Amino acid sequence: MDEESFKVKWDAATRAEILAEGMSRRGLEAAVRSGELVRARRDHYVAAATPRAVLQAVRIGGRLTCLSLLQLLGVFVFACDTLHVHIPRGASRLRSPRNRAKPLRRGSKRGARLHWSPLARDEGGTSACVGVIDALIHSVLCQQARHAVATLDSALNKGMITALDLAEIFHALPAKFAVLQTLVDARAQSGPETLVRLMLRGLGCHVDLQVAFEQVGFVDMVVDRWLVIECDSKAFHSTWEAQLEDYRRDGILASYGYCVFRIAAEDILYRPEQVLASLRGLVATRRTLR
């Protein structure tokens, strides 16, 4: 068996599959002793480089899915403090994610969120993860609506899914989620941007995303053709040099007649009520002055 396939695809293989590929029983035991392979559960193995969340999903008896998988792939999720695992119908002898010798305790916070519904794309094979389409379907069911839209925006923006895939996702979801499809926008560069855009839509504003200005470049969004909003994260705006560049960009935008409002990504995520209040105040003041 090609070990590289484990590293790249996060595969899992049974003992029978490994032996069928030509590895001897003694060779398999040696690979486990050396740490090249890990016995996730009885007769199921993964490569040593497999991410911990994937290993734990296999140990339980399923495949990684939903927020756990998307987070691992770099797709925006608001929070993921529980392991999400898809379990095939009829599965039994589910084990603890931390100890393959112990049964899984249902309802335990140290357990996992189990997804039992049939997959939209059951690709089978040896993958230890569901496909991105099914992970996104599960993510809509497991998050608040606005966070689900941000996750879908992120997957589209990163090129992980297409517009046709998006239609398939909503076709597989209950009809009550259909309204969310109209809110998805692949231009959003980050989860916080999506969340602010949804706040502004709720206030009845017109929002343009990723608008280019001469001498400035692209800004995150322009609201009602007068307000520029930038969603700043610590990763790109923490140094004085970066802040100075921001001030200069804001000055140029002011010379074009635009006001600029910068919002910290941390506040968008964890103080949304205050952010919404600020946006409401700005919008109301502008409308009053007209």
UniProtKB/TrEMBL annotation:
Any one Pfam family here would be: MTES_1575
Gene3D superfamilies, per database record? VSR Endonuclease
InterPro entries linked to this entry: Restrct_endonuc-II-like (IPR011335), Restrct_endonuc-II-like_dom (IPR049468)
Annotated protein name in UniProt: DUF559 domain-containing protein
Q: Which organism is it from?
A: Microbacterium protaetiae
Q: Which residues form the Restriction endonuclease type II-like domain?
A: 195-280
